[in-house]
Amino acid sequence: MDYDVVIVGGGPAGSTCGTLLKKYAPHLNILILEKEAFPRDHVGESQLPKIGSVLKEMGAWEKIEAADFPIKIGATYRWGQSDDLWDFNFLPYGNLQPEPRPAPYRGQRTQTAFQVDRAIYDQILLDHAREYGCEVCEQTPVKSVLKAGRKIVGLRLADESVVTAKYYIDASGNAAILRKALKVNVEEPSTLKNVAFWDYWQNADWAVEIGVGGTRIQVMSLGYGWIWFIPLGPTRTSIGFVCHAETYKKSGKSPEELYHQAIAEEPRIHSLLNNATCENKFSATKDWSFVVEEMADENWMLIGETVGFADPILSAGLTITHISAREAAYTILELEKGGDQEWLFEEYTRRNRRRVLQHIRFADYWYAANAHFTELKEFTREIAAEAGLDLDADKAFQWLGTGGFVEEDMTSGGVAAFSFNALHGMNDWLSGQSSKFAYGGYNYFQVNLNKATKVEFARYEDGQIHVVEGYERDGKVLPLTGMVGTLIKHLRTNPQIMKALTSILEEVRAEGNEYNQYLHDWIMQALEALVRDGWVKCKVVPGVAPLPETSDFSLFVGTNNDKDFENRPLKK
Length: 572
Known about the structure:
Layout: E1 2-8, H1 12-24, E2 30-33, H2 50-58, H3 61-66, E3 71-78, E4 86-89, E5 113-114, H4 118-131, E6 135-137, E7 142-148, E8 151-157, E9 162-170, H5 177-181, E10 186-187, E11 194-202, E12 214-221, E13 226-231, E14 236-244, H6 245-251, H7 255-265, H8 267-271, E15 277-278, E16 283-286, E17 290-292, E18 296-297, E19 300-302, E20 308-309, H9 317-336, H10 341-368, H11 374-386, H12 393-400, E21 406-407, E22 412-415, E23 418-419, H13 420-431, E24 444-447, E25 453-461, E26 464-473, E27 476-479, H14 482-493, H15 497-510, H16 517-532, E28 536-539, E29 557-559
Parallel strand pairs: 1-2, 1-9, 2-6, 3-12, 9-19
Antiparallel strand pairs: 3-4, 3-5, 4-29, 7-8, 8-9, 10-17, 11-14, 11-15, 11-16, 12-13, 13-14, 17-20, 18-19, 21-22, 22-23, 24-28, 25-26, 26-27
């Protein structure tokens, strides 16, 4: 009963961590303890594109793609200052080119996500971890955690047996078995106190089908909350309702009554259910946004929802889960090679705290920008006011980026895994104002490392943690890697932006690559992040045209164009 790593929880966090450990270190003995018997339903079905690269690395992409889950190309919203519908797309204009499924992870599919039936999805991933060599025990709850100070010395199971390990991983989600036993402090930086009610429906119509198997989730706000509509497969759909806890209490209705009232009052969602039947698997939960202060210490780590939770409006839960599990696996692999535990744990905690906090802040802004349910809006206004946010587009950007716009996961620029182009489009739509590029109107960009401290960052790649040099100043980070590092290198030599871009173009071509629009956009988003975080100072020099101040962001965000919605064919 002694292992190298014991993982508590067999959901996507546990299976991702276990699979990657076995992939890169097959000699490790990994035990995954799961209290339930799979398959079982679980909320949290909508993904962001970042997950695809993790599934590919795990060797699980082909299995997930073969399950024929709907391809998520974005979302349709009724939100913000207008009653009109608008789309947010992962692909330009939401165009998913038809291709047979199952399809490989390449091209357009690297920019899409899945909408998954968690009973099926979690089962596939747990079985995949088994195939990679993890020992999996289902229906095996942890009864108690044995400790010596801050160190875990064993886990007592329901049958009174004791499991020991070199490392312990808490992937138990909301149960937080290890986190609660260790009394890890939890912060609730948001004043939002929402509750969620949901059920599953058979034979609901999709609002739109794009390409082969592509669709958008539907997010429709009401005067007192919002509804999610997420197709999970050809016949099954997850429909949930989120509102403030006080709204529910004041309604005088049971959770089921309030849930069905909300669906009946939302015409778009209600029309999709003409031929549908409810499975009557009604569930409810609170979804307080939170983040923990420490995520690793001694011989344990927290991953997935045990490290934090952000309101489901951004579909961030599974993304945070998979990425944190991957980075935890990499951390243990490096510890096994004799890596510096203090530094590794600090990097893991810093990155994941920032990731969760960004999503929480972004969710707060979404609620503050919603003109429909005023009660929730007032709760977020308190937070927004402290940061000087009055829904002015540029101030909103500055608030969202508190803690940094240089996005380490993207090695470019953005917030909460969303690119600047997508952020500008969403921000303009929500605020009703045009935001400007931070670099707009300038042509000269001088690198500014004044009072910055040289530090080392972790880069997680190919089963190893590589040490990357960079700088830190006032809580902002500058890893000299990816497009950010490339741009810094060329701006040091050529502060005049057109000269810098020309030298980057020459470098790209010398390496046998193509300088295309995608690469150019990536460079410009890195430049915007550097300007917003203060790593470059910008000015105008005579004789050279300045960069544009604004752009058309309808490529990813625009008015809903499902013109034939009312005349769509209904499923039989």
